[in-house]
Amino acid sequence: MQKDEQVAKMTDVMAKFLGYSGKVLPDDVSAKLEELAKKETLPLARTIYDTMFENQRLARELNRPSCQDTGAIQFLLRCGANFPLVSELENLLVNATLQATREAPLRHNSVETFDEYNTGKNIGKGVPSVFWEIVPNSCGCEIYTYMAGGGCTLPGKAGVLMPGMGYEGVTQFVMDIMTSYGVNACPPLLVGVGIGTSIEVASMSAKKALFRPIGSHNPNERAAKMELLLEDGINSIGLGPQGLRGMSSVMGVHIENTARHPSVIAVAVNVGCWSHRKGYIVWDGELNFSVKSHKDFKYE
């Protein structure tokens, strides 16, 4: 297969997968919502969960996005330095976003800053966002896709704490955000917390936390304990599904961290709504692909 044919095939696969992920929730998100619905005791909350499941059924049946806000498209790449299309990949993903916008269809969500016009294509300066990690001595490529909604993921928050505030300060930062903003982000939420040495590092860690499988834990036992404590704390607020009260406010809390400078603790919070439209697809050096997030996806 010639390189232009390889590019065309990968573009088409990514476009179709991106459109599919806007209509069908990832397997782990669907399973978690079903688990939370079974635990719910309040009648209104149970009705809301039933409506969520009906929404998902109709999205599949009618072949339409499950939420009107199909977000700003984001890609997180862990790409091998020897992946055959590494040089073409960023432009390829832009074209896949344009194709998905037309075919899925996706709402036009790219507005050029200062010029204040909607491109009508879901692409613009720096949109879609493509975040890179290069993996040495590898010919494969892992691609995480995400529809970052205007009510949940895009309004994240980050700050730098003085070291004396400690992890209690981190907890207060997270809880202040969840009590003041969480009700607006379409709970139950997946909460990503990044802790590190600067705002940009913490913010990227919080974003990466949203791509972890629901139910996974930070490998550091202290961080894993903090995940559970924050989950209990946020659930105790009682936001419930769609912020109308209930047993569970979150699908989980994921913490990702780096080392930090001794004089600061940077912390960031990023949240995914109940319609957490992430995707995960893995390519090998022969351009064979495997979808890890959606077991029912079929490329035709």
UniProtKB/TrEMBL annotation:
Its cofactor is iron-sulfur cluster. One of its GO terms (molecular function) is 4 iron, 4 sulfur cluster binding. Keywords: 4Fe-4S, Iron, Iron-sulfur, Lyase, Metal-binding. Pfam families: Fumerase. It comes from the Bacteria. Its EC number is 4.2.1.32. The keyword 4Fe-4S applies. It catalyses: (2R,3R)-tartrate = oxaloacetate + H2O. Residues 13-279 form the Fe-S hydro-lyase tartrate dehydratase alpha-type catalytic domain. Belongs to the class-I fumarase family. NCBIfam families: PRK08230.1, ttdA_fumA_fumB. Tetramer of two alpha and two beta subunits. This is L(+)-tartrate dehydratase subunit alpha. The lineage of its organism: Bacteria, Pseudomonadati, Campylobacterota, Epsilonproteobacteria, Campylobacterales. The gene is ttdA.
